[in-house]
Design a protein that fits this description.
Layout: H1 10-20, H2 29-49, H3 61-73, H4 78-90, H5 112-118, H6 124-131, E1 140-141, E2 144-145, H7 146-153, H8 156-163, H9 180-186, H10 190-198, H11 213-218, H12 224-237, H13 255-261, H14 267-273, H15 288-292, H16 299-311, H17 328-334, H18 338-347, H19 359-369, H20 374-394, H21 401-413, H22 420-424, H23 431-437, E3 441-445, E4 450-455, H24 456-461, H25 464-472, H26 479-488, H27 496-527, H28 533-542, H29 545-564, H30 569-577
Antiparallel strand pairs: 1-2, 3-4
Amino acid sequence: MFFTQPEISLSEGLERLTSLLENINWENGADRLELLRRLDPLIIMRKAVKQLYDLRDIFQRDNVERLLEDSLFVVNDMDQRIRFVRFVSRSGYKDEPDIDEAGKPLLNRATPIHGAHRSSLPGKVTIIQELFQMYDANYDDDGLTHLHVACEYGFQDVVERIFMLGVDPNLLPEQMDATPLQLAMRFGHVDLTELLLINGADPNLANRRGMTPLHVACETDWEAYKALTRFFIVSEDLGQRVNMEARTLETGRTPLHLAILGGNEEVAPLLLIRGAHPNSADAKGLTPLHCICMSERNVNLFRVFRTISRQKGWVVPLDPLDNELRTPLQWAVACLAPNIIDSLLIAGALLSNFAYPDRSFFNECFESSLTGEPAEINLKMAFGLLGVIEALDIEGYDPKLSDVLTIMSLFAERNLFDNSLLEAHNWYDDEEFVKVAKKIMMYCEEEDENSYNLSFFDLIQLPTKKAAQKLMYPYSCCDQCRDQFWSSANMGKLPEASIEFCARYFCDKIARTFFRQMTVECFYQLVRPVLMLDCCEEIVDKLPVKDCLQYLKMKKVVYFLKTNSHNNPEKKKIFHRT
């Protein structure tokens, strides 16, 4: 080390510090970096005797900022970086802005606070907090002010100091996309939200995208409910009316839309109670009910939404059409939300004019709602589709052939009917796989009660029909259960090479269960009276699922020819020949 003594006197330390500055070229980055390196041991020793230097007596302001920036962005040692910033902060160093000819401070420049904020430095919150002890003025760098930075990190004492300088709380420079109040609410700083409102922050001021503080809070999970509760109370006390129906410029969404789409079960009811309209449609014609139906996790929110609407005397249509003429029920089906389907139909949604979503609509919803590894996504899709069919069937909807073909095509386009990989590998005989699979207990449905009564390994040994029955319930019934299946099966614990095989195995079993009955009927109609129905069942049970799809497509062609042959003699010939 440069020094070996554990402690030195103030005068000796000052003398050594001064000696380090001799012959330094402040324009040379290497010289400054060497100075920081040689300063660090001295800083450690000064900390030991708890005496600090007034750097204003030693350094010019420009040189202090150069060293601060070098310590932040050149020094690699995080501890050394924080030591130097803290040393400067606690030495009593204070920045003093330059003054123009009129005697006003010049505030348009970048400071180390701006640089640290825009960086990805480890421990940058601590660093910025220390830097704010040196800077009181509200410097502005390309629209980003110290007030904006302080509001993002929740530094209430800093905001109070800035307000003492007469700074406008509604700062929204052209380059910025958020007001100080929006930043405080986005990051859940409840007390700071109140401070800003009391000091004149506009609760309805929107950014360039039309986002108000209310919109911003509804997009976040960071103490959003607490921040909004305080926001409403303080605004009310100040006599400021909050616009509950403010809309974003591009999407036309209200705060209620954003709260529901974010799955915020606390905030959405709060907005309804405060007067948010339950039937407001966005630019795509989507109402809050449409948004609720986009996720199975919104089952409780659906009930609360209905309850509050009834209490307030609002009439909420259950079958509104968006700009694509899609109802909430169709959204629930496409987003694989069987419990939402059940709730909608019990509440009175109509099945009489229900049209099954097409493949493109399903895929559009899958992109936003299904997340995870490819094998996990495929399993969730398989269980979800099965759950949707079950939910519609319980309420009396009989799937059409076109519906079945749509679902089968979703499996086919993901190549889930190609079991050549399963047939080519004895993946279930792998020693590591068997060892892990026998320890994983599955949650399966039994006649008397639900229990963990079957190992993962035992499950894959069952005959197709029996295995499918085990998988049918409860995993198909809700999004949480599908996630639970994935975690209860502990796929991540299985050998990586076998995970894809497992996903294909389960998808095959689920698809086979659903498509079997209609395939048997189609096959029987194609071959009768040559074969009896029970023979057809045996044959179909042994068919690959991709062959079942072909038989269903054949039936669709036959049905088309049959229903159109009376007006076209040529078609009639083709039908008879078929």
